[in-house]
Amino acid sequence: xxxxxxxxxxxxxxxxxxxxxxxxxxxxxxxxxxxxxxxxxxxxxxxxxxxxxxxxxxxxxxxxxxxxxxxxxxxxxxxxxxxxxxxxxxxxxxxxxxxxxxxxxxxxxxxxxxxxxxxxxxxxxxxxxxxxxxxxxxxxxxxxxxxxxxxxxxxxxxxxxxxxxxxxxxxxxxxxxxxxxxxxxxxxxxxxxxxxxxxxxxxxxxxxxxxxxxxxxxxxxxxxxxxxxxxxxxxxxxxxxxxxxxxxxxxxxxxxxxxxxxxxxxxxxxxxxxxxxxxxxxxxxxxxxxxxxxxxxxx
Length: 299
Fold this sequence. Notes:
Blueprint: E1 8-16, H1 22-30, E2 48-53, E3 57-63, H2 73-88, E4 91-97, H3 104-115, E5 119-125, H4 136-147, E6 151-154, H5 163-173, H6 191-206, E7 216-224, E8 230-238, H7 241-248, H8 253-270, E9 274-282, H9 290-295
Parallel strand pairs: 1-3, 1-4, 4-5, 5-6, 8-9
Antiparallel strand pairs: 2-3, 7-8
């Protein structure tokens, strides 16, 4: 553990509406993929912990689910999880798209964070999509005049523009303290969590409409066989029998595509050969039932 009094340590919660690029930012800050990223909103459901250790800091980033008005109990859990992360953090990164001025939802969110007496860095993402750089200045002025953030940083999380500067500012705002994790740790989440997320990512990318939102994945078993191959058994749960049929596909074609794509991703991540055994089950209306949310680790 680092005992240097100039060493900075702290928890940093990344908050924002769905699809503003929070998971892309976490991956950019860490320099590797930790959070799954898809074009679909609400991809992140749990608080994802990413640990970044440098010579003078250890930052524990908390990637949170997108903030929204909940429509069912899973979304209530997601919003509560995000606000709990903000409450526990030393610093909050509020992430917005850089194309529009703050809306009423973002104004209310800022006020909630300020009521917690937290330092806030506003991160304006997707600046690469602005037609002209000058278009950014009035947006920065609009946010600055209304809220008085501790810092405002325009970035492109996807392309990496502004990310090094953001990292510098984050470290500056953190308190002095010793490191909490070994320097080579990148997360404190278990292996099975990431395996399940990789399978879920492929479901989101390969299926359409409501399927991604009605699906959850549980990695039931992970063990190494005598031949060195890793055996993984994962269960995919949907809410209706019709969704099960879509997920399996004609003669199992869709489930096979999901399994092949997920297996390749897991093998790259684990650095080993993997046998992925997928099973699909139905838990009716699981997103709105406390017993199922507990079973699947959401509450």
